[in-house]
Amino acid sequence: MRIEQIRHFIKTVDTLSITKAAEELYITQSVLSKQIAGMERELDITLFERNKTGVRLTPAGVVAYECFSKVLQAYESAIHHIRDYQANIEGALLFAKLSGLKTPEILSNAIADFSKQYPNVAVLRKNQNNAPMTESMKNGNHDIYLTWKHDINTNSDIEFVPLAKYKVNLAISISHPLAGVENPTINEFRNVNWISIMEEEARMFSKLIAKVVSNAGFEPKIILAENLTEMIDMIQDGEGVGIVCEGHILHGAASMRFIDFPELPGWTMVVATRKDNKNPIVSEFLSIVRNYIAVNSSC
User: Fold this and answer.
1) Considering the entire predicted model, what is its pTM?
2) How far, in Å, CA of 217 to CA of 219, rounded?
């Protein structure tokens, strides 16, 4: 039996009129009558005696009204208590985002909903490059991390929720001589510099470049940048080409051309946390994120 049925039954008793109860509940008389009939079938009793002037409780209906009034009161009291408890939860959610990533809309909405539900919980954000984030995950310095799935695949201490998959493109400055070539192939970039990031900062870039160019049959000329920001600057300055994902904030910049090659696989952005995280707010946050993903998947 649904709480909605109980609430509607009590309203009918209070008004002693199907018509008036339906009006106050903003439902049709037929819907209300079906709900009352459903309760009677489930309880195997008659709740009301119908007459021309309205309805009147049967003796069994009187007992049902007394019992269900207590049930509804207890239910509404529990809801109030739960909401009051949630509204007064205090604390902080330490949120680390890999520098340069765009925050997916689905995550922004989840964070906004979380802040609405938990107004006394501060979401403290910090941007981190790959190496500091890897160290932070190792030591559990933050609660939630926004990063790439391939950066945590080998870490069994981490659990994650996939958010979105993005294309990976070859990025080149529009001032570069090859930027104007129509439908270029990887082979046309054999004599240019390929800009990557130092091994300890982001292993994925160098591995991806090596894989792509090895399939094309040449050895790349790799220049190492200290971090992703420096890599982007070097590409924009025309010093070479590099791998840039759609999930990066500078993807689509007017100063660069982004070329789609089938050799470049997509990357999956995730929110992650350590499995041994002790902050009770983390599970609530991830639950909200999963709900948003489920809703969007069903649309």
Assistant:
1) 0.67
2) 7
